[in-house]
């Protein structure tokens, strides 16, 4: 028996990959290069872009998209989409503000109920996708329309207008504001806490993806759910957890919007779901799942923040912004395709 | 090779001892009877080959043993105790590991992550506990090396390995995590001659280590090279059930190809 299988290879047969190969194999490398180029581009074109103040404004703009995009990125690595992620932000805020206004209860109560409601929506998204086998694109497209309609309909019923009412006099407004949307000054620079929250969420997501069992499962259920199930990975639980993570982060940003602006437009958030997906894809997440990382998604959100403000700082017509995003997305998809081919087909030795 | 496989194999396995016994097991999906009256024994240290054409009931048989679909007739006994599996986890807990042809591994994940998928080593029980990455890399690397699978870089995506190597990693993983029965679903179907050889050597090694192996294939040549016991299924029923001593490769090939039906067909076509 011993003779039938070839002898173990000597350890010297190991191949150490070159630095360029190892770098290219990282999902975020394309986004990083793009971010540097865009940064230099706006630095040279827009004089008002060259200050610490505007840098932190860009960071703030990025964080509002980046927090939800962080969850959407995880979900996409897990092989699913969530098109309801944009409107759920407003559902969370509207639920909180109108519930407390209508029943006259402390805003903290509404915030927790709103959290429970959002988690329930996330759970339902995941449960329906997993139980019916219908693609998440369709299920969450349905949720998206239901929420969009309900946001407008319920708001109209409660307030007779299309925006929520002033809640700044209700108990809990100040303390909630401190948690979700406060800012502090360092010199002349205003730093919003949402930027710090964003960094924390990205750090946590990176840890989970790369260094925990849950992260291993996320990659596996996105890459090949059947094979994951065959080795005992709880696919259902992992995917539902991912949908709930997205709706949790949506709730978080919803709280930020509510306590920053006090009133919310009932039709808000529509279209943002695509910004999250674009941030994730630009950041190197594979549309088909199983590949990507959170730092890449954060860089994708940062590119969004830079361009949306950079165009204004440069004095251009902001209507061009969407066209620019589209070009970025196409470039990112091409780069990803190339990088994926490089990292899976590369010659090792 | 045999020693390293054996060192992971369950020490309580005794050659010839029955691990899985099926007594007139059957399975119907609604009105369709996919499998009827199957009597099968999987013994420790033996390779049981299940052969059959497409639609013969091979996959249904595997699904019953690996816990994907419970049987609804007869009795299935594992280690002498009657069981009905309702999930792959239950069957894994009994030491029954199944390696599927095309879904053995997750292609974009690193070799070591695949090796430990579903059985990761963590620094603690809490949900955010860190993985013992360094340790897992080392174990995966040394285990694969010991088992004769040469992986150039343990961090490369497993999709960069050849089909035969991927199958071997999946088998090695099952053995390392204490499988007592190994079910291989057409492991050589998509492979070339040389790569099939690698997998067949591995099957033989698992048998020598005392594991019970169920080898599903429709290639009688591959089956005869490693098999101790042969079962041919046709339309959900057993048409041949013989040990290696009782059957020749020719008989196996003829039976597999359709036997009497084939003779009839050649008569009908009438070419000499």
TrEMBL record, chain A:
It comes from Paractinoplanes toevensis. The lineage of its organism: Bacteria, Bacillati, Actinomycetota, Actinomycetes, Micromonosporales. InterPro entries: ABC_transp_permease. One of its GO terms (molecular function) is transmembrane transporter activity. This is Xylose transport system permease protein XylH. The chain crosses the membrane at residues 29-49, 55-76, 83-104, 110-130, 137-158, 189-209, 230-254, 274-292, 297-314, 320-339. It is found in: Cell membrane. Keywords: Cell inner membrane, Cell membrane, Membrane, Sugar transport, Transmembrane, Transmembrane helix, Transport. Part of the binding-protein-dependent transport system for D-xylose. Probably responsible for the translocation of the substrate across the membrane.
UniProtKB/TrEMBL annotation, chain B:
Keywords: ATP-binding, Nucleotide-binding. The keyword Nucleotide-binding applies. GO terms for molecular function: ATP binding; ATP hydrolysis activity. The keyword ATP-binding applies. CDD domains: ABC_Carb_Monos_I (cd03216). Residues 20-260 form the ABC transporter domain. This is ABC transporter ATP-binding protein.
